[in-house]
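Weekly sync notes, structure subgroup
Attendees: PM, AL, DS (notes)

Item 1: joint prediction request from the bench team. They want all two components modeled as one assembly rather than separately. Inputs as received:
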Amino acid sequence: MPDSWDDDELLGALSEALRARQAVPAWFVETGKNAYAWHNIDAELAQLTYDSSRDQDTVAAMRSEVASIRALTFTSPQLSLELEVASNSLLGQIVPPRGGTLEVHTTAGVTSSQVDEIGCFSVDPIPSSPFRLRCRMEDGTDVLTGWITL
Amino acid sequence: MRDDPTVVALVTRAARGDPAAWDGIVERYVPLVWSICARFQLNNSDREDVSQSVWLLLVEQVGKLREPAALPGWLATTTYRECLRVVTTARKTERLGTGLDDALQFVDHTMIDEEILMAERNAALRAAFAELPPRCQRLLAMLTSDPPCSYAEISATLDIPVGSIGPKRARCLERMRKSPALAGLNDADFRWTEDDHHA
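Output from the run, pasted for the record:
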């Protein structure tokens, strides 16, 4: 640090630094700390490999009547997760098809629903905060998507 | 800015699963995330949304950061991006157009750099403050409070004579000036404060 800082300058800078931290409300800090609960989840991560909203022009040009339905695909080495975003629900399918349980994780908690034997499931309503999906399949496959915000 | 060994250690430990190190990262950089949200004038619900996304993304990235010292830059850029996402989503609802990809073409690098510099300087100053003995912390906290405490109040609260406040103030600041936490700050970091009050 520079020796040129005199006492008043140093005190002024300190005052600003302390105030910058005091300005942050506790709930905002807690959001950050709570996120660590997600560290090292023991599931295979599925990457977002397709998002129709990023290929809007192509989709709109080819099939304009369905361009309003957003489609997402998450892929892991074990399986793919295909999602369609309807007005207030998510319809999904596990490929290759298999049954199991689908968990919807939000920062508020976890809800689960059934994946039928042809790999289909629905999430209703769509979570309003960021969420991720965890597929625990009957064959032992355990796959987790990245965070999704819709 | 130098590669702060504190940051490198926090990142390494958090990547290995140490929750205290994670809390340390959040404590250190939460003002940076907050300050960028404030620049975008987001409401509290949008700020919560941005904060969640940023820290959740960091949880996944913390083991993959090739240069832990690049963390403040990563945080600032990610926060900026998430703020843009929130703002453009709101605009879409209001039918004002402008998608995220358009908005990202106008990333304000100057603003991001300013925020990083300010966050690092403030974090270093808070770290140096935290290393001071409690009596120095109490004195400096009173001297920097808003509105400022009078010497009479300080004298009564800390039970020290008014005449010794000045010399104690000088000694505490001298101690702070010698703190290793401030070793990496240079003149440029400080001079920049002079016009950052406009924000």
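Discussion: Residues 191-199 of chain B have pLDDT under 50 and may be disordered.
Action: AL to compare against the crosslinking data before next sync.
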